[in-house]
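We were asked to recover a plausible sequence for a given structure. The inputs and outputs are reproduced exactly as logged, with field labels preserved.

PROBLEM: sequence recovery
POSITIONS: 148
GIVEN STRUCTURE:
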């Protein structure tokens, strides 16, 4: 009998770094956001947003996100709905080309506010009640800042 090789697919360890300042909260996602790691995003969201205190803009920084499956997209939509229910703003920043293409194909680029980086998103949405829910900021939604 020959020796069999066990192939284990390597994935990036996922982490959510949270930064709060006077303009809002930034969730920086690192690694692969998938079925196995999405609970970490849910927990960070609950810890920061479930308190009932005003958060200002909520920005999800995707600059270090290496992969996102349908479960990850569902988690982002859950955050969007949570912020909309609180009359708040959820923005995505530094969206990768692959994720942006997926958003374009699914129409989610019309749902999420997209910005080139977290600082731009924080400055653009210092807490504009109803901005996401009412369809304001269509330039940011279409990704025109990205030149795409």
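RECOVERED SEQUENCE:
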């Amino acid at each position: 009998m020959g020796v069999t090789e066990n192939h284990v697919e390597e994935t990036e360890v996922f982490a959510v770094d949270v930064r709060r300042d006077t303009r809002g909260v930034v969730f920086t996602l690192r690694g692969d956001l998938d079925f196995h790691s999405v609970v970490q995003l849910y927990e960070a969201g609950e810890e920061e947003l479930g308190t009932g205190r005003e958060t200002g803009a909520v920005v999800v920084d995707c600059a270090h996100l290496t992969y996102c499956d349908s479960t990850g997209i569902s988690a982002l939509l859950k955050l969007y709905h949570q912020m909309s229910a609180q009359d708040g703003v959820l923005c995505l920043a530094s969206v990768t080309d692959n994720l942006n293409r997926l958003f374009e194909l699914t129409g989610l680029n019309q749902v999420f506010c997209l910005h080139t980086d977290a600082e731009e998103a924080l400055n653009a949405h210092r807490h504009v009640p109803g901005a996401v829910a009412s369809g304001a900021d269509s330039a940011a939604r279409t990704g025109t800042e990205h030149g795409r």
